[in-house]
Amino acid sequence: MPSITPRGIIAAFAILSAANIALILYLFHILEGLVSVEREYTYVGDDFPAQLPLTLPAVGLVLSSDASHFSLYADDDWGSLFPLSDGFITLHPSPLTHAPATAQSSSPDGRTFLISMVHQLHCLDVLRVAFVANRTGAAQHAAHCLRYLRQAVLCHADATLEPDEPGVRDGRWEHAASGVGAVHRCRDWTALRRYMDEHPAEPFRV
């Protein structure tokens, strides 16, 4: 039986060490791809995130037929939906990506945006007021809101199942659904509201 020389032991140790290092580097490369690195933005031109960088917890919403709030004429109820600065917030770049102000900025180092949820609520309110006041002059604004809300609904693509409630109409059975009682999977809109209240848009600097 051949004996193992010290040189052979050293060679085997070197090979095993190299293999371990290669394995560690490979695993590090794999993990690096799995861990998302938060990108830094300058907020100049198109260099900004598509979504507010805020994690919103998942919540449930049970649709209700309660008509005691948010009626067509409840201006105060509808007004309570809108946060400070009407949903406009100012986001700032990190010190590493600091960029000078542009014409699209409201402050030397920030960029102002409108939160889409508030825009959608605003459009619902516009349609409500146009209906209540019969404001024919609001037709262009209402048309914009109908287009905007249609696309927002398609984007959300809510796949919640609403039980069929068939009924007879004009002597024929028809499918129908009120949606009342259906539980929708949502994102916590109260957390988003708190963020907007705590981070209102900064005033223009003249």
UniProtKB/TrEMBL annotation:
Pathway: Mycotoxin biosynthesis. One of its GO terms (biological process) is mycotoxin biosynthetic process. The keyword Translocase does not apply. One of its GO terms (molecular function) is oxidoreductase activity. It comes from the Eukaryota. Keywords: Membrane, Oxidoreductase, Transmembrane, Transmembrane helix. The keyword Transcription regulation does not apply. Pfam families: UstYa. The chain crosses the membrane at residues 9-31. Belongs to the ustYa family. This is Uncharacterized protein.
